[in-house]
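Quarterly update from the structural biology core.
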Amino acid sequence: MKLRITLDDKTFEVEVEVAEADHASLPPAYPVGSARLTGSAAAGAPTGSQSGAGNPPAVADEGKACRSPVSGVVVKVVAAAGASINAGDSILILEAMKMETNITAPVSGVIAEIKVAQGDRVQTGDVLVEFI
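Predicted structure, tokenized:
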């Protein structure tokens, strides 16, 4: 696969290949920086009775929770509670290691609640958004 990367206003084209063949758990064309929608059927998904030290807290319906793919700081919240969104729409922007990551909606739906605000620190696995 060929990728185009821009660093300091210089564009580079690089060729990469998948090192691990086990990527069956990811949806096709999984976009980088996109938060995954967790599901109760997902292996290892915590439930209310299983969550504890080292595990992200469970939510009422894990199938409707969007968790952070990285640890960082919320730079900007783009979406709002009650908004209808499509898969791939921007929800918020996180900064991690001085790089901004656009967090996009993994599925189409309606945002029930945005759990973070601008300036909040988040850890990998923290709930960012819940959907109706």
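The first strand starts at residue 2 and ends at 7.
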